């Protein structure tokens, strides 16, 4: 019903020009009063529809082909291939098609067409559809900027397990609404889904707000292991310079530095055993963070 409401709202609102830029970011302050259910961590994989195996095979072939192309070399053909799959109900292809309309890749840019496909996804309770409707409403793309509508849609997407929506709400609750417990909970949920931006956000919050440096480095390590290059660079700098009270450790700094340059060459790399390859030492005063207890522990002497 929420998706249907939004669609009707789109028809009745004053629309922006197809190729207009965003009207600016809206702010989800305490003036946003949309009702929301109590937070419960949900995983996206539990809310995705089944996909026809043959269509999925075709989709993966298109994706692989797309990644090999020089920019703009075969964009029209790729867009057409996504269109064919989307017309057969493949939601991943529908998402790719919507993004192509959004950015004008292989097709004339149209925020309206992008909106239609995101709406198609939301009508099927696909989390990414709700998330992108929220982002468009927040930025004022294809319709007037609507922070209340965006607020509703971010929450719906998060309830269905969208890590992108959980990340966005985490940032809103932490830095706009100043509801730290709620913001951290959203980020923790997204981080459990291996969403590296939320792991990095938890690191930044622990460092800046809590001044808990072992906890910060634990989450930087999580983000770096998931391939976030800037987090890897942060870890390298900590032990290169002796930041936050840590002792300088050139061996550990080099360990992170080498992986940073590997990520520069291949951004898709992951390091699932990073903590074994580059083990974090205890902080001289605060010890080592234990994620199971959410406490710092000093090593036994």
What descriptive keywords fit this protein?
single chain; 301 residues; mainly alpha; Serine Threonine Protein Phosphatase 5, Tetratricopeptide repeat; two-stranded antiparallel ribbon; 2 strands; disordered N terminus; TPR repeat
| Count of strand segments | 2
Class derived from helix and strand content: mainly alpha
CATH-wise, what's the superfamily of the domain at 2-8 and 40-157? Tetratricopeptide repeat domain
H/E series: HHHHHHHHHHHHHHEE
Widest sheet: strand ordering: 1-2
Main sheet record: 2 strands, antiparallel
Low-confidence stretches: 1-34
Counted by DSSP, the helix tally is 14
Give the overall pLDDT as a whole number. 89
Shape category: globular
Kindly report the CATH topology of the domain at 2-8 and 40-157.
Answer: Serine Threonine Protein Phosphatase 5, Tetratricopeptide repeat
Rounded to the nearest angstrom, the distance between the terminal CA atoms is 61 Å
Strand content: under 5%
Q: What is the level-2 CATH architecture name of the domain at 2-8 and 40-157?
A: Alpha Horseshoe
Please tell me how large the radius of gyration is. 22 Å
Q: Any idea of the CATH class of the domain at 2-8 and 40-157?
A: Mainly Alpha
Residues in helices, as a percent range? 55-70%
Verbal overview:
Helix 7 crosses helix 8. Strand 1 and strand 2 form a beta hairpin. The chain is globular, with a radius of gyration of 22 Å. The N terminus is likely disordered. Strands 1-2 form a two-stranded antiparallel sheet. Among the domains are: 125 residues, Alpha Horseshoe (Serine Threonine Protein Phosphatase 5, Tetratricopeptide repeat), CATH 1.25.40; 74 residues, no CATH class. It contains 14 helices and two strands; from the N terminus they run ααααααααααααααββ. It is mainly alpha-helical and 301 residues long. This is TPR repeat. InterPro entries: Sel1-like (IPR006597), Sel1_AlgK (IPR050767), TPR-like_helical_dom_sf (IPR011990). Pfam families: Sel1.
């Amino acid at each position: 019903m929420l998706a249907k409401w939004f669609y009707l709202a789109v028809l009745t609102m004053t629309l922006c020009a197809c190729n207009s830029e965003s009207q600016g970011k809206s702010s989800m302050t305490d003036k946003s009063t949309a009702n929301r259910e109590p937070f419960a961590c949900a995983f996206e994989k539990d809310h995705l529809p089944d996909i026809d195996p043959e269509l999925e095979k075709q989709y993966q072939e298109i994706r692989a082909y797309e990644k090999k192309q020089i920019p703009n070399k075969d964009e029209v053909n790729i867009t057409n291939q996504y269109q064919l799959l989307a017309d057969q109900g493949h939601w991943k292809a529908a998402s790719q098609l919507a993004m192509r309309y959004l950015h004008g890749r292989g097709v004339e840019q149209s925020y309206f067409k992008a909106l239609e496909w995101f709406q198609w996804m939301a009508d099927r309770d696909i989390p990414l559809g709700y998330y992108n409707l929220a982002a468009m409403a927040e930025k004022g793309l294809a319709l007037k900027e609507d922070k209340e509508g965006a607020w509703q849609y971010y929450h719906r997407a998060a309830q269905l397990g969208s890590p992108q929506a959980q990340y966005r709400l985490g940032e809103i609750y932490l830095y706009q609404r100043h509801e730290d417990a709620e913001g951290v909970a959203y980020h923790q949920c997204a981080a459990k889904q291996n969403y590296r931006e939320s792991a990095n956000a938890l690191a930044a919050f622990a460092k800046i707000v809590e001044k808990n440096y072992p906890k910060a480095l634990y989450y930087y390590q999580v983000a770096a292991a998931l391939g976030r290059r800037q987090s890897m660079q942060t870890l390298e700098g900590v032990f290169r310079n002796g930041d936050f009270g840590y002792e300088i450790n050139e061996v550990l700094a080099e360990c992170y530095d080498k992986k940073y340059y590997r990520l520069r060459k291949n951004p898709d790399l992951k390091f699932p055993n990073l903590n074994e390859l580059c083990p974090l030492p205890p902080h001289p005063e605060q010890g080592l963070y234990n994620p199971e207890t959410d406490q710092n522990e000093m090593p036994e002497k």
